[in-house]
Design goal:
alpha+beta; about 70% helix
Amino acid sequence: MVVDGRSIGGIALVTSLVVMAFFLTLFQWLIGPFLINVMYRAHEVKPDDPTYGWVYDMVADVARANGFKDVPKVYIADVPFPNAFAYGSPIAGKRVAITLPLLKILKPGELKAVLGHEIGHLRHRDVEVLMAVGLLPTVIYWLGWSLWWGGGWWGGGWSEGRDNNGGLLLLIGLVLIAVSFLFQLFVLYINRLREAYADINGALTVENGARNLQRPLQR
């Protein structure tokens, strides 16, 4: 097999695209919490906050019940829908956000159960797990797309006068693209599984957690 400049260029392009996809995903994860705060108009709550200090104390209680030495950063999000979520990164730290509508519709016991669910995500490192699992189909897709595109232009798949290696690259590329879409189903399965683990965590680490978690979900 002769490796010419065209083949070397194709390999370099495939490698660069895969590496770029990896680092873009990693960069998005690192700065994601800061972008989330901007989009959700979230402001941090401190222990001495005159209005929402009690929310910080509740998060601290749930965090200690889950074995956390340091309390995750607590944020109140000024958006028009009820929600709570856990997020973070190595440079942003662990964070929990609660939206204003959720504070209005939940009783303290119910909110504590919801926080048990969200703290469970941090305890199980779900942010990192889902980022790592979600990265795989992204890399597989870009690898497949690069091989498919490269097979056409460098291997002869798009014209008749070139060698026949392009047909094999096209086939491998299409298979990898299909695998990436199938892998997305696995990612969804992992996501639902981690949600179930977080529900169990809220039920086991918060007093009356199972009952108090059911009512917010119904609402």
